[in-house]
Structures are given as C-alpha cells and as structure tokens.
Amino acid sequence: MRTFVVLSVILASVSSALAQTASAAAYVVTESPIAKAGLLANIGPSGSKSSGAKAGIVIASPSTTNPDYLYTWTRDSSLVFKAIIDQYTTGLDTSLRGLIDDFFTAESTLQQVSNPSGTVSTGGLGEPKFNIDETAFTGAWGRPQRDGPALRATALITYANYLYGSGNTTFVTNTLWPVIKLDLDYIANNWNQTTFDLWEEVSSSSFFTTAVQHRSMREGAALATKLGVTALASTYTSAADSLLCFLQSYWNPTGGYITANTGGGRSGKDANTVLTSIHTFDPAAGCDAVTFQPCSDKALANLKVYVDSFRSIYSINSGIASNAAVATGRYPEDSYYNGNPWYLTTLAVAEQLYDALIVWNAQGSLTVTATSLPFFQQFSSSVTAGTYASSSTTFATLTTSIKTFADGFVAIVAKYTPSGGGLSEQYDKATGAQLSAADLTWSYAAALTAFEARSGTTFASWGAAGLTTSCSAGTSTGSGSGSGADTVTVNFQETATTTFGENIYLVGSISELGNWDPNSAIALSAANYPNWQVSVALPPSTAIQYKYIRIFNGAVTWESDPNRSLTTPASGSANENDTWR
Ligand code: NOJ
Ligand code: NOJ
C-alpha cells in the first residue's frame, strides 16, 4: 500500500513534469510565428496594427482605451529592437535590415524633439514616451525615465558592432555614432540622478535602470575605443565603474534578494530584477554575481524570493506545489488593474533559468553557494554547497529539474494564452483571462527571447566578463576594465526613519557628491531600512564636507548644521556611520 502510494506520487510528478515540458515545447512551435508577426504588426509605417505610426516607430500596443497605449515608449521600443537586431546580426533573420534602419532614423528624430523633460541637450533624452507621429507627449507622466537612453544605446551598439565588424566602418562612424553618443553622454552625465522606475511609478534609484546604464557605459566605452575616441572611452568607463559600485548596494543580504528601488516603500521584490538579469546576460561572464548574471547565486536566490511572492496572492496559483512554476507579475504590491500576472514577467523567469542552463552546460559544472542554497533545495532537499561537474548525478538531477521548472513558466503562459495566440499585457489573477493592453509588443518580444534562450541561442557579449568592483570590503581598488583606479570607496550609512514615499540622499562639497546641489544628490538604498546605505567612489586623501537630505514629493529637508566632514583614505575604503540629525 505504502509502496503503491509512493509510486503513484512519483509517477504523477514524472507525468506532470513531462506534460509541462511537452506543453512548453508545443507552445514554442505554435506561438513563435504568432509572436513574431504580432511584433512586426506593431511597427510603423506598414505594420498591420500600427497605422499612423511613422516609419520605425514601435507602438506599445494598438489599444486606444483602457488603457491607451498607442504611444511609443523608448524602453519598449529599444527592448523590441534589441531582439530584432539580435536576430538580424546573428543571421537568424536577414530580412530585418530595412526595419532596423527605420528604427534608427525614427529614434534619431525623437532624440531631437523638445519635450516636457527638456531638449536634446537639457534632459529631453530621459522622456519616456512620444506620440506615434514623432511629436512630444505633453500630458502629465512619470518622467524622466533614465533607462530608455541606455536601452536604446545598447540596441544600436549591437547593430554598430556588427556593421563595424563587417567592414561598414564609415556608416558606423558618421551616421550611427553621433546618435549613440548622445544617449551615452546623457547616461555619463546623469547616472546618479533620480529616475522613475521602469513601471513609471517610483521616483528614486532603480536596479534595472542602474544595471542597463552600467551595461551601456561598458559597451559605449568599448565602441568609443574602437572608433578612436579614447577620451570618451575613459569617461564612460569611469561612469561604468561608479554604476557597478552602486549596483551592489541593491542587494539585501538579510532577505536574500535584490531590492528593486531605493524608494517606493514596498518590499522591493520586483520583476525589475529578473528583467535585469536577462537583459544584461552575457554568456561570456559565467555566473558572476557582480553583474547579477542569470546563474549567479544572488540572481538565483532573488528569483526564488520573487517567484514565491506571487504564490499566495493570485488565485490561479492556488494548489500548485511550492517548488513548481506559477504565474508572476510586476511586484506583489501592484494595484494596476488590481494587480495581475503579466506575460512578459512570467516569461522572464523562464528566460533567466534557460540562460542559467546555457552557462552551466557550457562550463560543464554548476556551483551551489550558501546564498543560492534555498533556490537549489527546491529541486533537491539534500543538496549542499559545492561545485558539481556535469558528469555528476547532482548536476544531472538539478539541471533536469530546473529545465522542467523553466518550462513550467512557459506552460503557464501557454495555458493562459487564448486560442488565437495573441498576448496582451496581463492575465487575470483569478480567471486567467486577458487584461489590459491587447497585443502588447513587449509581450511578443518577451516570448521570442525566452524561446531563443530555451533553444540555447546566445547573442553577442557586452563586456561583463571579469568585471570587479572596489566596493566590497577587503577587495583592492580597481576598475572593471583594468584601468588604474584613482578612487577610494566610502561606504555611507545613515540611520533615518522616513515616511512612505520619502527618501534619503547624500550631497556634499565635491562634484562626486553633487557640489551641494540637491538635484545632483546621490540616492541611498533602503534595503536595510532604517539604515540607508550607499557606496561612493571618491578621490583619495581629500577633505570633504557632506550632509544627508530627505526628499519628499520634491521637497528637500536638510540635516541640521554643522556640515559633516571627512578625509578620504589614501587607498582602500572607509565607512561613515551616521544618524539623521
Ligand atoms: C501607467 C503606467 O504605464 C503603469 O506602469 C502604471 O502602473 C500605471 N500608469 C499606474 O501608475
Ligand atoms: C506600462 C509598463 O509599466 C511600462 O513599463 C511600459 O513601458 C508601458 N506600460 C508601455 O508598455
């Protein structure tokens, strides 16, 4: 009797694993052409659902009411075209060249359109969305959003690198580079400024934004070097070094996850972080945690915490085993359309896992650390920290289970895709029915990139391999690309209780600290609230003054006098532990 029960449990779980794998595989076959066609239908001027859009303009969705998404967002468009450019430059689809050139022209036009965020030289590049006839959108909105220029630069740099490599150097230098350079300079000049997050709701610093800015600065530096603009290359590299340092501060070691935003007053568990992992995946970077690669211990620990945060809040997830795939959304506190799962976020979980499998298989081993142990224990309760070669049964057990787990997320998306194959933005947390914007271009791109990762396809590296940071205690100062570091790290911590929506910033007497300008103040992370924290690269052996400020709805409150002061060390790092006064 007991044997029978155990056996039937095993059989049931084997057959459900096979069923998930089979339905994911079948879905990839049927949905791939639908997703590709759905994406192309949303690009002007001849996409079948994008009438009125200028050439190369990506509409977010053809939906004009509830919600009105008939606009072009720099983020959505750049992510969509990154997928298109990857397909073109790797030879997967050589018919896309004309569309890419249209996109380039459209974006270079939009860069020059004065808008509520400013002109091209006064901040206008941070404007999140435009009308589809390439005029400015002037309504109220969460602006600026500083991920857009970085994502656009990354897409165009991928194209530029390909053309340069195929001998088209004049076109890259004379045509592409001036446009790419505008976005790169904007990031280099504004990376430490407050931004709205990718969900257009929270104004603070945001992990996704910092990470994609970091990527764009690395790639931008490499392209500048190739084109012989070495002064710019070092400007971008030094911004990249600072960004990589700041990126580390989003990690919450107590919770074992990445806190998505420094503001916002939420748990910080957010698809923001999973999207970061897939959009900064570099197959050459192994499982490096410094850039939160998909198979890094931090990104895997984070993935589990993120996924688990949706298990009990969506009723379509009820009854699903605690180690099986579920529907996931933007963040558990989401209330947009009452808060539902999104296709693009559920697909992102699958993609991160497929990316991880690509690297483990390529390197022939997999490492479990204390940080990633809870993630791996989902698939083998007895697994312990260690490195497992691909010849081991542990490697086989874990990778097989993780592939099944990943396919499970695709199977969830398949289950809630209506028969025609169209993908909207959201699906209902209780019924699974489609909700919000129909035919969301980003949903289709998310399906295509997840499917590509499932098949083991990888795209060009961006220079994440071997990066190190001087931020963590004990490591010597140094920069990612080997240029001699001329900064030291100061770890600022300020204990301050705040009200919902209020954030703590650091400002001081030197340019690295914003020259006392609150608009240039550096945001601190609330990952360990009420201890706000940020690590800043500063010149060595320098006397500086500083203060913390709190910003609430744009209103600035300064700490009381006198100014705080410190002299930075000659090398290494220093800690400043302060309390609000
Ligand atoms: C529209 C934004 O695009 C969406 O991300 C946000 O959740 C809602 N406005 C509510 O703020
Ligand atoms: C709302 C999403 O939150 C935002 O990320 C996106 O850019 C817009 N919708 C358009 O798709």
Return the CATH class of one domain: Mainly Beta
Q: Write the CATH fold name of one domain.
A: Immunoglobulin-like
Annotation, overall tally of beta strands: 19
Indicate the radius of gyration in whole angstroms. 23 Å
Summing up helix and strand content along with how strands pair, one would put the structural category as alpha+beta
Distance separating the two termini: 69 Å
The CATH architecture of one domain is Sandwich
Taken as a percent bin, the fraction of beta residues is 5-15%
Major beta sheet, specifics? 5 strands, antiparallel
Mean pLDDT: 92
Provide a count of the helices.
13
CATH-wise, what's the superfamily of one domain? Immunoglobulins
Subunit arrangement of the protein: single chain
Helix content: 40-55%
What general form does the structure show? globular
List the helices and strands and how they pair.
Layout: H1 2-40, E1 72-73, H2 74-89, H3 97-111, E2 129-130, H4 148-165, H5 169-190, E3 195-196, E4 203-204, H6 207-226, H7 230-248, E5 251-252, E6 257-258, H8 271-279, H9 297-308, H10 343-363, E7 365-368, H11 373-377, E8 386-389, H12 393-415, E9 426-427, E10 434-435, H13 441-454, E11 488-495, E12 503-508, E13 522-523, E14 525-528, E15 531-538, E16 543-552, E17 555-558, E18 564-567, E19 573-579
Parallel strand pairs: 11-19
Antiparallel strand pairs: 1-2, 3-4, 5-6, 7-8, 9-10, 11-15, 12-13, 12-16, 14-15, 16-17, 16-18
Helix pairs in contact: 1-12, 1-13, 2-3, 2-4, 2-13, 4-5, 4-6, 5-6, 5-7, 6-7, 6-8, 8-9, 8-10, 10-12, 10-13
The structure holds 1-deoxynojirimycin (2 copies).
One 1-deoxynojirimycin (NOJ) binds at residues 199-201, 336.
